[in-house]
Structure prediction request, 333 residues.
Amino acid sequence: MKRAFIRSLFSLGCCLTLLLSTSCSRPDPTITLRGASQFDENHAYSRTLKRFEELVRAYYGKPIKFEIYMNSELGLEKDYFAYMSQGLSVDFAVVSPSHMSTFSRAAPLMDMPFLFRDIDHWNLVLDSDALDPIADEITAKADVHLIGFAGGGIRNLIVNKPVTTLAELNGLSIRVMGAPIQTRIFQAITTSPTVIAYNEVYNAIQTGVIDAAENEAAGIQQMKFYEVGPEISLTQHAITVRPLCFSGKTLRRLPDELQTAIIRAGKEAGAYGRQIESTEDAIKLAQMQTEGKLTTHAFMERRKLQQLASPVKIAYAGEIGAQQVLKRIEAIR
Prediction:
C-alpha cells in the first residue's frame, strides 16, 4: 500500500514536471514589431515611430509588442530600408527617399531640392495622391510600403564660413545625399558636391575634406554640426519628405485586422511627424542661434538658385518617367 502511494506521488510529480516544462517552452504568441531610428528619443523621427506604436495599439486592440531601437543601434537609414526589403531585423522606420534609389529611380524626386514652393505647398502635396505612382513603384520593386509621410524640416547649408551670394557659393565643397539628382542639382547651383556617409559628415568638415553640408535644424542639433559648421546659409533649398515605411514581407504575415490598423496608423503618424517637425524647425534654429552655437545668414539670391535648378528638375523627371508626377506637384495650389 505504501509502495503504491509512493509510486502515485512519483507519477504525479513527473506529470507536473512535464506540464511545467511544456508550459515554459511554449513560444510567446504575442506579435513583436521592431522599429529603428538613427536618432535619440527626442528627435522628430523617433517620436513619429512612438506615435505610430501608440496608434497601432489603439486601433488593433489586442496584445502586441514593440521594440524601437534608437541612436543608430541597428545601423543607418539605408540599412533599415534594406532590412525591411528583405523582411529582416527592422519592420518599420522613417527613411530618406535617397536611400530608396537602388529600387526606384523615381524615389529621390520626393526629396528633390527646390521641389516645393513653401510649407503650405509641401503639406498640400503630401495630403494629395500626387506621390502615389512613386510609392506604388517602391512597393512593387522593394516590397516596402510607404504608409505615411513625415518630415518637414527646411534644409539649409551648414558652412564653416558665411555664404550669402552665388559668388560665395561657387565651388563650395559640400556633402550631399547619395542620390544622383542631389549631386546634379548642387552642381547646377555651382557648388562642388560629394557623397559622404551621414555619420562621417562631422569629421569631414572638421578635417577640411569638405567645407559644408546641408541639413534641417533637427539634424544640425542632434549631430552637433554647428561645432564644425557654425555659419548657416538660409538657402531653404528643400523641405524634407521622410516616408514612414513598413516591410511588405512582415505586413503579409500579420492578421488582416492588424494590417488595417498599421495602414491607418501610418498615415496619421506621418501627419503627426510633419506637424511637430515643421513647427519645431524654426524654433530649434532660433534656439541654437540664441545660445551662440551658430549664426544664420540670409541667402540673397535664392530666386537665381531656383532658376538654375529648374531645368535639372525637368530633365530628371523626364529621364525617370515621372514628368506627370512633377507636373501634378507643381500644379497643386
